[in-house]
Amino acid sequence: MSNPPHRHVLSALVQNVPGVLAHISGMLASRGYNIDSLAVGETEDRRLSRMTFVVVGDDRVVEQVRKQLEKIVTVVRVQDISSRDFVERDLLLVKVKAPAGPKRSEVRELVDIFRGAIVDVGPEEVMIEISGRENKVQAFIERMRPYGIVELVRTGRVAMVRGASGPAITEEPPTSDVGTIRRFTTA
């Protein structure tokens, strides 16, 4: 009997080469896996990128996603970090109607309460940056709705395990095309 569906955070270390994101997202889509959030960025080692996925499912489904990812030659390592002690953040940029006067003051006060920053000011609207856990970002969005959200963009979640060091890469990636790339080894 499997566990009920819940939120999993997967961290995948991948080779930083063209086509990796398309290959991975295509594979997941073709198998019917839904990704709630996906963030990709270069790591401290320019040869590698980290992909952070948020998926909802039971343990069996998430294990299948992990196994499918590990089959991709450009994927170095995949971990379900959900059960570990980790820090998670989401970044939000939101443009809100805030004409000069009392409404703008109210918006500015809410931004301060949520420890955000106003990053652009126009005559009728402001652009706000908020980062934090998913529930904090969502709560801020709900507080801004009555003012009138003009535009909104989020990064998706990024996460890192506390206190664990990253992999030491012991092999130089080949410089040939993607089809011949081998796996990195971790020490």
Automatic annotation (TrEMBL):
Its pathway, per UniProt, is:
Amino-acid biosynthesis; L-isoleucine biosynthesis; L-isoleucine from 2-oxobutanoate: step 1/4; Amino-acid biosynthesis; L-valine biosynthesis; L-valine from pyruvate: step 1/4
Keyword Transferase, does the record have it?
yes
Which cellular components does GO assign to this protein? cytosol
* Keyword Transferase (UniProt): yes
Q: Quickly give the catalysed reaction.
A: 2 pyruvate + H(+) = (2S)-2-acetolactate + CO2
**Which Pfam families does the protein's record reference?**
ACT_AHAS_ss, ALS_ss_C
| Molecular function in Gene Ontology | acetolactate synthase activity; acetolactate synthase regulator activity
- Classification via SUPFAM superfamilies: ACT-like
Briefly state the protein's biological role: Catalyzes the conversion of 2 pyruvate molecules into acetolactate in the first common step of the biosynthetic pathway of the branched-amino acids such as leucine, isoleucine, and valine.
What name appears for this protein in its UniProt entry?
Acetolactate synthase small subunit
